[in-house]
Amino acid sequence: MRIRKITNTLVELTELGFGAAVIGNLYRVTPAHDARAAVETAWDAGIRYFDTAPHYGLGLSERRLGAVLRDRPRDAYVISSKVGRLLVPHDQPRGVDSEGFAVRDDLRREWDFSRDGVLRSIEATLERTGLDRLDVVYLHDPDDHWKQAAEEAMPALADLRDQGVIGAVGAGMNQSAMLARFLRETAADVVMLAGRYSLLDQSSLDDVLPAAEEHGKSVVAVGVFNSGLLSHDRPAEGMKYDYRAAPVDLVARARAIADVCEEHGTTLPAAAIAFPFTHPRIINVTLGMRDGDQVTRNAALHSRPVPGGLWADLRARGLIRADVPETDPHGEGERCH
Fold first, then answer.
1. 109, 171, 256, 333: which could join 182 in a potential S-S bond, CB 3.0 to 4.6 Å?
2. What was the pLDDT predicted at 190?
3. Which among 84, 62, 72, 51 is positioned nearest to 284, based on CA atoms?
4. Number of helical H runs and strand E runs in the chain
5. What is the rounded distance in angstroms from the CA atom of residue 31 to the CA atom of residue 291?
């Protein structure tokens, strides 16, 4: 699988990444054997970038991911996790986590973007994963914590990067405007952009992507299926868009895009995975995958060439923005071989 480098670092990511939120029991239980099979199948498919976080299943995702990866050669893969939510004992557990994960709530999340919080979070992640280091660390959803995240957490991460403890630092969130600030105003090398550069939402062309261009920094795209609406060949009513029921007009637009994809001999989900690479600053698409079958499907979709004329046709029909770059997603770009 092709790889691309996070600009100005030594960290290289495979173009397709494994998002480990779902193996932390996001929305429903993922059996342990399915979680292991997902990671092992991703490895067999050539995926070497794995992303997790303490938030995902109150540490379950980190434990499950580490249990598989710790048996692999450490220099053969890249793992990222996140800081900003410390896991602390829950003094009034109710039995089930209240933030979308099907796990017991013996622990709870505590926001902390202080330097001490960053160091404690990384130490706890290493203990849960059983690994000796993290390659990339992101600030996780600092939407309401800009000052502490920018003035304490990011400098703490940058110090660890400069000491060679971690390879790259950044921030990840569902909005793009603040990510642009991290690129312009802090030592971030890379940002994880959730859902804001997809076939249905190109709003990051107004902020984070120009900032990445201006400062020569990198972007990892996640949420490219927009919570599921773009994950099937034929979108249906009742599917999710950004964690909610998809509006009727967006379902209709997704169906129109699917029609154009079919005309070009491809599918909507294949195009959804390929689309972010139209922008030269996007170096990776990371997908949440619950079991081996999902990994096999997504790896196959990623490997299929998407006709370059598709993007021009979608622009001409007004189905994507006119300022979407002309870049061929299968051109050389910043790939390393």
1. 171
2. 98
3. 51
4. 11, 15
5. 9
Tell me: pLDDT of 330 over 80.
no
> Within the chain, where are the H helices?
32-44, 60-69, 115-129, 146-148, 154-162, 177-185, 208-215, 248-263, 268-274, 292-303, 309-316
Q: Whole-angstrom Cα distance, residue 101 to residue 25? A: 5
* pLDDT at res. 243: 84
Position 147 scores a pLDDT of 98
pLDDT at residue 333, rounded to an integer? 38
pLDDT digit string, tens, across residues 197-210: 999 999 999 999 99
Phi and psi torsions of 214, nearest 5°: -60, -40
CATH number of 3-320: 3.20.20.100
56 is catalytic: yes
Length of the chain: 337
Strands 3-5 and 12-14: antiparallel
**What whole-number distance in Å separates Cα of residue 302 and Cα of residue 284?**
11
Instruction: Using DSSP bridges, classify how beta strands 78-83 and 49-51 pair: parallel, antiparallel or unpaired.
Output: parallel
Catalytic residue from among 27, 49, 56, 77: 56
Token pair for residue 55? 């938030």
Q: What is the rounded distance in angstroms from the CA atom of residue 138 to the CA atom of residue 169? A: 6
Residue 336 has pLDDT above 90, yes or no: no
Instruction: Please report where in the chains the tokens 């129109």 appear, as a residue.
Output: 256
